[in-house]
Amino acid sequence: MAEVNHPQQPAGPIPSSGQKTNWPELVCLSAEEAQNKIKEDMHAVQIQVVPPDHFVTMDFNQSRVRLYLDSSDKVSRTPQLG
C-alpha cells in the first residue's frame, strides 16, 4: 500500500478570531514604518520585503507577511499573512 504524504503546516502564528491578518492602512508607508507596525500587532511574524518587479514563490506561509514596494520604496499592496 502506498504512503500518502500530507503537507505539514509551517510553525508560526496562527491568527485567532479578532487578530489582524492584513494591514491596508500601511499602503504608501515606508518599509521600515510598515515593519514596525506589523511587529507591534504580531511580533512572531516573518516579514519579507519585496522590491519592485521581483518574483516571489506562490507558497502559503501563515507566519509570513510580504511587503511589496513600489519604485519609491513605499508599500504598494496591502500586506497580509500568507
Using brief descriptors, characterize the structure shown.
single chain; alpha+beta; two-stranded parallel ribbon; 82 residues; 12% strand
In short, what is this structure?
This protein has 82 residues and is α+β, with helices and mostly antiparallel strands. It has one helix spanning 31-41; strands spanning 46-50, 64-68.
Task: Describe this entry's structure for a reader.
- The protein has 82 residues and is an alpha+beta fold.
- 13% of the residues lie in helices and 12% in strands.
- It is built from one helix and two strands; from the N terminus they run αββ.
- It has one helix at 31-41; strands spanning 46-50, 64-68.
- Strands 1-2 form a two-stranded parallel sheet.
Q: Tell me what portion of residues adopts beta-strand conformation.
A: 5-15%
Order of helices and strands: HEE
What sort of overall outline do the alpha carbons produce when their principal axes are compared? Answer: globular
The biggest sheet, with number of strands, parallel, antiparallel or mixed sense and barrel status, is: 2 strands, parallel
Topology at a glance:
Blueprint: H1 31-41, E1 46-50, E2 64-68
Parallel strand pairs: 1-2
